């Protein structure tokens, strides 16, 4: 498809330094925006957002970084063409960058972040054919016999 993805994982959303994960999100967003400025397609992908920025009732500590990650993502949703880096103010608008997140339970994210206007949600419940296609993609280099395609799917 010719897309230059900028990837992040849930593990990057926590740090011993307060504010570092939020800063990293802005940096990666700006990196994708710079790619778009050059006429290429890009998107920011954050894998397992719920694992890095979610809160599981009283069992998970809600840290300063959780708060700042949620606030940063909400700010980007509200002002996608004005994403600033710490210590640097740029008057020029940056291109809008799609942010695609994956997760298993978005209900544990900050309610305002997942609300209408901030996040558009697409749910994927793979059927049998989808699961077989995923398995084929994973194991295609292992030369799995065609008749083995449906075992366990």
From TrEMBL:
What InterPro entries does UniProt report for this protein, alphabetically? ATPase_AAA_core, P-loop_NTPase, RCA-like
Q: What does the record give under GO molecular function?
A: ATP binding; ATP hydrolysis activity; ribulose-1,5-bisphosphate carboxylase/oxygenase activator activity
User: Domain of life, per the record?
Assistant: Eukaryota
Q: Where in the cell is it found?
A: Plastid, Chloroplast stroma
The ATPase AAA-type core domain, residue ranges: 2-124
Where's it mainly located? plastid
Task: List keywords of the entry alphabetically.
Answer: ATP-binding, Chloroplast, Nucleotide-binding, Plastid
Cellular component (GO) terms are: chloroplast stroma; thylakoid
Described by its record, this protein's role is as follows: Activation of RuBisCO (ribulose-1,5-bisphosphate carboxylase/oxygenase; EC 4.1.1.39) involves the ATP-dependent carboxylation of the epsilon-amino group of lysine leading to a carbamate structure.
Entry-linked PANTHER family: PTHR32429, RIBULOSE BISPHOSPHATE CARBOXYLASE_OXYGENASE ACTIVASE, CHLOROPLASTIC
The entry assigns this protein to a family as follows: Belongs to the RuBisCO activase family.
Q: What is this protein called?
A: Ribulose bisphosphate carboxylase/oxygenase activase, chloroplastic
Please give the organism.
Quillaja saponaria
Q: Source taxonomy lineage?
A: Eukaryota, Viridiplantae, Streptophyta, Embryophyta, Tracheophyta
């Amino acid at each position: 498809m010719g897309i230059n993805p900028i990837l992040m994982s849930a593990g990057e959303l926590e740090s011993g330094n307060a504010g570092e994960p939020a800063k990293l999100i802005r940096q990666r967003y700006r990196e994708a925006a710079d790619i778009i400025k050059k006429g290429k397609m890009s998107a920011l992908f954050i894998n397992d957002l719920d694992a890095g920025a979610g809160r599981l009732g009283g069992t998970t500590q809600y840290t300063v970084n959780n708060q700042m990650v949620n606030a940063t993502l909400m700010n980007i949703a509200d002002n996608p063409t004005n994403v600033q880096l710490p210590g640097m103010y740029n008057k020029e608008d940056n291109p809008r960058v799609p942010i695609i997140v994956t997760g298993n339970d978005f209900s544990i994210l900050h309610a305002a972040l997942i609300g209408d206007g901030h996040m558009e949600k697409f749910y994927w419940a793979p059927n049998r054919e989808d699961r077989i296609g995923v398995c084929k993609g994973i194991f295609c280099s292992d030369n799995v016999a065609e008749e083995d395609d449906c075992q366990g799917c």
